Amino acid sequence: MTDSVSDLLKAHRTHRNFTDQPVTDETLATIITAAQHAPTSQYLQAYSLIEVTDPTIRQALAKITTRATVATQGRLLVVLADQHRNAKLAATPVAKRALTELDRFMGSVEDATLMTEAMVMVTESLGLGSVVLGSINNDTQAVIDYLHLPALTLPVFGFQLGYPATEPETKPRLGLPALLFKNQYVEPERYQTELTRFDQRLHTYYQQRGGNARDEHLANMTREALGTAAKRRDFLTIARRQGFLPEIED
Ligand SMILES: Cc1cc2nc3c(=O)[nH]c(=O)nc-3n(C[C@H](O)[C@H](O)[C@H](O)COP(=O)(O)O)c2cc1C
């Protein structure tokens, strides 16, 4: 437990291994209902959650996310961008059409994202840990099929939570000169100095950390993250199949 929201945020680290201690329904509900108070675009609350308890589906999601523990440990939610509910509520052709378009599509992904980060924080405030799993979109269509997702919904993240079995160290973050600009996107004098400083800090972190110590540099890590061919090239096609992002003729 930590004293303040900023201490909690600064102590954040992703957890990927969880003990057998069950997360009760009450705890899960506490986390979700608190996280629902995240800001939401146009007050549309354009997300929903599916808890996955079926062992076959969890196994499939473990394979898709390439994380074996997803099959068995903790509780597992899939966070959806969801304009399906709003289409039902609004129920006019104009509103339904609006909900398919890019800005509302982005609104639902933004809502789902902010809500997920809020779940991360509430989870940690209660002494639990979590991992956000963007990798469920390694096979978006399979997730849609397993979860029977209706039109105007799409998976955004997996969210696995539980009582931490290990305590990873917090990873350092960039200092402000690398990301805080004034009035215009003009890199401040200390921009390059900060990148060099952060690179050293990152290098030390990776060399000194408890598990999986290694020789890392910022530019290499960035290159490695981007070195493979673009992933999820089918995402637009699948989003369109789900009713989002129609071709616009005007
Ligand atoms: C959008 C998003 C997607 C992510 N997807 C995955 C994932 O698929 N698998 C995973 O193990 N971690 C995933 N993570 C966690 C990141 O790897 C982690 O946040 C990052 O390495 C920084 O570490 P920290 O959270 O411990 O500070 C994801 C995080 C975000 C924000």
UniProtKB/TrEMBL annotation:
Which parts of the sequence belong to the Nitroreductase domain?
A: 10-163
Gene3D superfamilies, per the entry:
NADH Oxidase (3.40.109.10)
Keywords of this protein's UniProt record, alphabetized? Answer: Flavoprotein, FMN, NADP, Oxidoreductase
- Which domain of life does the protein's organism represent? Bacteria
What's one Pfam family here?
Nitroreductase
Is Disulfide bond found in the keyword set?
Answer: no
Q: Which family does it belong to?
A: Belongs to the flavin oxidoreductase frp family.
Q: What is this protein called?
A: Nitroreductase family protein
Which organism does this sequence originate in? Lactiplantibacillus brownii
